[in-house]
């Protein structure tokens, strides 16, 4: 672990080559608002807050040790051969909002009773208000043998859930011509619950283009009981699965991968055989690792029993510490963890944060909106949009009909439009999802 002595050169001057927002690092620092996390949630909420006329002093700092900012929804496109990895990432310093300070520090401990954060580097940062948005941890070690398999290109094991492994997915799809192909989804909460099958549908489409689809037996093995959590889309996806001759292995959770014997081991989570281990041979294996809160969140006073930042599901304010808010993957908000959800969460959080600063009632309310642009093949996509309770909330339903039907327009939104919007507007604080460039009305209607 780095000590304070290692930070002394940084205290004199910023690291050469980083953007103007990069802050020198004192032993102690204080800011009006501190944002933990420089991912989609952290950067977006900082950018929107910085643009808000009512926000006085414009004193915001972001804590994140990363050097690169990733457009993670784009990893599906990379794994499907539709876009390059280079298009899906930028230096973090280049997306930090103008005027917002960036400390490349790793949080070790929250001390909300004293409005303070301790970092692994030995620096203490205090705040008036805190926004917690560090994302979640992809736990590759949670599946026995997976890390070793991913390091071996010959294993035919890959995953879109890391920038280090995503390019191997497309190489494996191209190379595979015959045999059993398994696509997994873990039980529990993950980033974008539709992503595990997006890569499956795209692989199936590519194998059909290559003329080898009939030589490949495809299985979708999920720890969940259905194809998707929202009934309307789950039914449509299950019909698609049957039409395309894909086996559904439901409530089977991947626990082990053996790249030498090409055997994947699953635990049965349901029925009379609950707990039993099931082995399946594979020629191609795409794995989505289990995911969890970071330990520095889960073991803090901010966490609920499951380890997520414990916030009110409507206001995004912490249930105990009223000067603390959270959004994105680290929050306890009971919705799908997607980038689209942040477009609806950020304006609510900012309205309620400003109300808290003024001692006023919190009136803005988040309805659980999230979206999953679910690729189902080349030139087709099912645009799943929904709110709390698994209730569809579709932007284009009155124009194009029900969005459970795959559509070419939606495909190009995902492939071409959304990445452009992300880098040009989303992280700059000027994109509001279905409301586009206009801030949505976040007030509760009587």
In short:
With 446 residues, the chain is α/β, with parallel strands linked by helices. Helices cover 26% and strands 24% of the residues. The chain has helices at 8-12, 40-51, 75-79, 92-95, 146-150, 166-175, 195-209, 231-243, 295-298, 339-357, 397-400, 408-426, and strands at residues 28-36, 60-63, 68-70, 89-91, 101-103, 107-111, 116-119, 124-132, 137-138, 157-158, 179-185, 216-222, 247-250, 252-258, 263-268, 277-281, 284-286, 291-292, 324-326, 370-377, 380-387, 391-392.
Record the SSE blueprint.
Elements: H1 8-12, E1 28-36, H2 40-51, E2 60-63, E3 68-70, H3 75-79, E4 89-91, H4 92-95, E5 101-103, E6 107-111, E7 116-119, E8 124-132, E9 137-138, H5 146-150, E10 157-158, H6 166-175, E11 179-185, H7 195-209, E12 216-222, H8 231-243, E13 247-250, E14 252-258, E15 263-268, E16 277-281, E17 284-286, E18 291-292, H9 295-298, E19 324-326, H10 339-357, E20 370-377, E21 380-387, E22 391-392, H11 397-400, H12 408-426
Parallel strand pairs: 1-2, 1-8, 2-5, 8-19, 10-17, 11-12, 11-17, 12-13
Antiparallel strand pairs: 3-4, 6-7, 7-8, 9-18, 14-15, 15-16, 20-21, 21-22
